[in-house]
Amino acid sequence: MHDNDTVIDLRSVCRTYRLYDRKIDRLKEALDPFKNSYHRDFIALNNVTLDVKKGEVLGVVGRNGSGKSTLLKVISGILPPSSGEMRVDGHVVPLIELGAGFNPDFTGLENIYFYNSIHGFSKEETDSMLDDILDFAEIGDFISQPLKIYSSGMRARLAFAVSINIKPDILILDEVLSVGDEMFRRKCFAKMEEFFKGGKTVLYVSHSSNSINELCTRCIWLNEGELILDGPPKLVTAMYNRLSHTKPEEIPGLLEEIRALNQDEELKAGIYEEINSKKKREPAENYVPDIQKDAAGEAKPALLRDLIRIKAHYIPDMLPKSTLIERHFNVDFSDVKVTTLQGEQVNVILSGEEYQCHYKVKFNEELGDVYFRVVFKDEKGAFLAGMNTRKAKMIISRTTPGEAYWLTWKFKCNFLGGYYFVGISVLRLTDEGPTIITGVTDALVFQVVNPADIQQGGFVHMDIQPAIRQI
User: Fold this and answer.
1) Any domain includes 22
2) Rounded Cα–Cα distance for residues 180 and 189 (Å)
3) pTM
4) What is the model's pLDDT at position 60?
5) In what order do the strands lie in the sheet with 83-88?
6) For the stretch 270-295, what's the b/e string if a residue is b when 16 or more beta carbons lie within 10 angstroms of its beta carbon?
7) In the prediction, which pLDDT does 370 show?
8) Distance of alpha carbon 222 from alpha carbon 352, whole angstroms
9) Which residues pair with 332 in a beta bridge?
10) Which of 81, 276, 331, 386 could bridge across to 438 with cysteines, CB 3.0–4.6 Å?
11) Is residue 109 scored above 70 in pLDDT?
12) What average pLDDT does the chain have?
């Protein structure tokens, strides 16, 4: 086993689920006198070896279904491993499924004591933290009412307040926080930031490379239950984001390169130094960092060559799964796309560069005082930016059936790395004010990649220029 600083130690841990095609198959398997199998195994964690030291903030990245939540549930004790060895030292609080363990027939107050007792706290210990929990939850007199009459938001707020005020040795966070209004969510995030900066051990699952890079001291990448890369956050997220820029037929080769990289600490350190360099890279497309050349002077595989500045490009199967159409009149949208200024269709674009969003609008009936709108949102649905032609004094006084328009919205991409969604709509002015004629939520999605020369953190590229003057 490891030294005393190691608080989480996993050795060849596996977690396997039995999947049944029909409910009756589970019973048939249990009662079959010949012990026939009616299930198939699904390996959620595959031979994971990992150690986490006290005070580390470990980010966990991977696609949906890669085993991230299963790993956190195994470490937190919610799920037992199917095989392997595990040791966890310290009091663990998982913020994975807010409200798990609460009893709907208990009052909010009773649930506080019930939940804390599960975590080994006495009544006196819970008494000492009760005021902090109630102040944080902000649910007032509802604390004396049964949990079953709470709104989902109130239950989540109470669960978060209880969990976060336990002050655990190890905090496990799986991006679940969508609690209350903007001010309350900010308070929750601020409270979590105390843990990130307070020397506590934190395991943090996020789809945001920016937050992983900014908050974590180390990161791991899970792929189909396998830990394929472990290292500095900027290294791991850079390699992980490359998966989005890779053609499907090239992905197996990429994953093999990543596995090889994970076994080569010298190469890993060299790539990290290259990624983390504050110098702007040469724009020449044939630029190859020194670390890419082996002893014979030959360039190493595509893994490192692709660290050169990525070009905007198009991935055909990157489509939103959240598209919603609101139709009040007979108006059609088509050909929704983002292009470069030269007209090349793209959906992976670079922060700091200019692009255009295009689409066609066809009117199948007569309408008056019509204008158009485009909005940009993040993956949580937060409104980030928008524009309409009314503000630009472009209003169509009257449309005729069969009339069509081609809309172009030129924009500078000031978003930093992440996924963003475009909503489009047609509106008209009425005596009651603007009303939607037809709208499409999440008509398209695009990914933003940070060029090597953007060293800023956060979500928006503000081109911040520092200056220091001695006085």
Assistant:
1) no
2) 12
3) 0.66
4) 94
5) 40-53, 6-19, 83-88
6) bbbebbeeeeeeeeeeeeebebbeee
7) 95
8) 30
9) 362
10) 331
11) yes
12) 83
Residue range 123-138, pLDDT digits in tens: 999 999 999 999 988 8
**Higher pLDDT pick, 175 / 236:** 236
Residue 338 structural domain: 324-449
Each residue's pLDDT tens digit, 368-378: 999 999 999 98
Residue in 254, 234, 235 with CA at minimum distance from that of residue 244:
254
Q: What is the DSSP letter of 101?
A: T
8 Å CB contact between 356 and 409 = yes
For residue 114, give the 3-state DSSP assignment: helix
Assigned domain for 368 exists: yes
Backbone angles phi, psi at 208, to 5 degrees: -100, 110
User: Computed from CA positions of residues 342, 348, 350, 351, in that sequence, does the dihedral angle turn out positive or negative?
Assistant: positive
Asked whether residue 252 carries a pLDDT value surpassing 60, the answer given is yes
CATH of the domain at 394: 2.70.50.60
For the chain, give percent helix, strand, coil, nearest 5: 30, 35, 35
Contact 399, 367 (CB under 8 A): yes
**Total number of domains constituting the chain:** 1
Positive/negative CA dihedral, 148, 150, 153, 155: negative
Distance, CA of 121 to CA of 284 (rounded, Å):
62
Sign of CA dihedral 266, 271, 276, 281: positive
Do the beta carbons of residue 367 and residue 344 sit within 8 Å? no
Structural domain contains residue 16: no
Number of H helices, E strands in the chain: 11, 20
- Cα 283 to chain centroid distance, Å, stands at 30
188 vs 151: CA distance, rounded Å: 18
Handedness of CA 235, 241, 247, 253 (dihedral sign): positive
Phi-psi region of 352 (alpha: psi -120 to 50; beta: other; left: phi over 0): left
DSSP state of 99: T
Quick check: is 300 in a domain? no
